[in-house]
Design brief:
about 70 residues; 2 domains; elongated; about 35% helix; mainly alpha; single chain; 3 helices; about 0% strand
């Protein structure tokens, strides 16, 4: 079984553990990278007349927070 450190390194396609202490700095703005889910929901509601049967597929969108 992989350790958490090994899993993080694998997920980042990185092998050198020297990056691990830098992750808090690297990821400090992670939540600011994507769009605001409320803004996206309002856009969808304002642009479509009937959203009751709406299905949205999110493919390859950075972290998927809006989904």
């Amino acid at each position: 079984m992989k350790t958490i450190e090994q899993s993080v390194l694998t997920a980042m396609d990185y092998t050198d553990r020297v990056i691990l202490p830098c992750l808090p700095y690297i990821l400090q703005d992670f939540l600011e990278i994507s769009s605001d889910p409320d803004v996206i929901a309002n856009l969808i509601q304002n642009c479509l007349s009937d959203i009751n049967f709406l299905k949205i597929l999110n493919l390859g969108y950075i972290k998927g927070a809006v989904s």
